[in-house]
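thoughts on my protein:
***
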Amino acid sequence: MSLAIGQINPTVGDFEGNARKICSFLEQAEKTGSDLVVFPELAVCGYPVWDLANKSGFVDRGLRAVAQIANSTRNKRITAIFGFIDRSEKGSKKNHNSLAVVRGGRVVLKQAKTLLPTYDVFLEEIFFLRAKTHKTFSFNGTKVGPCICEDLWDDDYATKPGRLLKQKGAQVLVNLSASPYSDSGVGRRIEVICRKAAEYGLWVIYVNQVGGQDDLIFDGRSCVVAPNGKMTFVAPPFQEGLFYTTIDLNKKSRTLFIQRSKKTSSFVRIKEVYDALVLGLADYIRKNGFRNVVVGLSGGIDSALVAALACDALGSKFVIGAALPGPYSSKRSFEDARLMARKLGIEFRVKSIMSQYEHFMNATIAEKRKRGAPIREKRSISVAMENLQARLRGLQLMYISNDEGALLLTTGNKSELAMGYSTLYGDMCGGLSVIGDVYKTDVYRLARYRNSISPVIPLSIFSKAPSAELRPNQKDQDSLPPYSVLDRILYHYIEKNQSANEIVRTLRPKRITARTIRRVLTTVDHNEYKRRQLPPALRITEKAWFGRRMPITNEFDI
């Protein structure tokens, strides 16, 4: 079997663009002599679509695109498989996440998805109906069993679509998928695909979406696995394209390959996270019609990394860097911000908040005197005064964004957002949180990786202690545990969903005290209200903020 894999980057709702891309790839595959071309889950409409799945106009346009794609196979020998939303039986308010098999100008088979994931970032039971039947089709003398994404991930389900398709005589499973990237999930995904191929003794063709869709990033990495569990082909990650391979259906092997989930090396993991963030940022900007972005440059590591990512995603001429010095900003930080902008080749603006801050504080003191309220000593800096500085910066940055149509990128990392070490309507202002799912320790790793390509981040930014610079001699560690300690605790609480007692036992060898652990967990829970107002945060871990839905009003004792 000569196979073409259409690893495409669709845009949700762009039926014309998605169909045009599918037809173009189909035409190319036909010219190269491919027998079969396969596209991802919901390739016609993009994934995920949430409540659009049950808007009649949305479904109708998708069905018209299906007819267009089917018609493009007229007078061709090639067969194509792609995902779309199909109407359900009358009387139901939900539709089907389906696939279509087309050849000779018509749709020859439709198959709905059976297993609908409803956990973490997946909410498919809310929007779709399950399939009731499992169909196969014959293709050049071979029986093919088509299925969709979770249908292959059947370990936790009573229904086993792969097994049912094999019982119906399938020799090949074709799995259309839209599996988002996470830094620790790729290895497990490959292990499952290979294990299922060996378990069912079938060839598995797995075709995954690539590209960014809101906060989700899809890595592609489509693959083909032989019946003995050996991977025979894998498409490149984070890259759209039409990829070719062949399957020898007559070749038999008695050697069973057990693909274990391997721990990715630190360098490879960081490189892939960086590539994922660049792709997610670029697609968010492009698909939402923005041309340029603005980043507040503080002279710290977080804003430096975000600025570098923005330049790699969009190009330097589309990035505005703004320094907003205040009463406690250090000269060194300002110079670091200016040097960073020069190294990146971006426009650099200076917007001091000093006069606004002084005017506000003087007006506040005068108002307090008038009503006889106590006045704080000049040297004493309250949290309200710290937050005022952050909000004045947010005001300036949002003005640039609003005035020039540039998307403001927030620069807060996952560690800070977990602990509420951020200011609502201040440094949390913006349209996209680029590193909101990246722990602080990984921020440094990503920045070092970027500098290994070209040294755009000044070394002085790495060497200074992290500080918000909202009061004299302030350091992050005045309010937080060291990030090397904090990030370990947060990982076990957020990603691993462990209780306080479990984390205490896990981290006992690291000499992290129970008191520190409980204080961190309590702080995380108390700051849920802030995270509800966070812009979309690009997801690169298995438990990002959108997939962690916690109540704000919560008396549960951790």
User: Anything to note?
Assistant: The longest strand covers residues 79-86. The chain has two domains: 2-259, 268-475. The first helix runs from residue 15 to 31. Residues 468 and 476 are 7 Å apart (CA to CA).
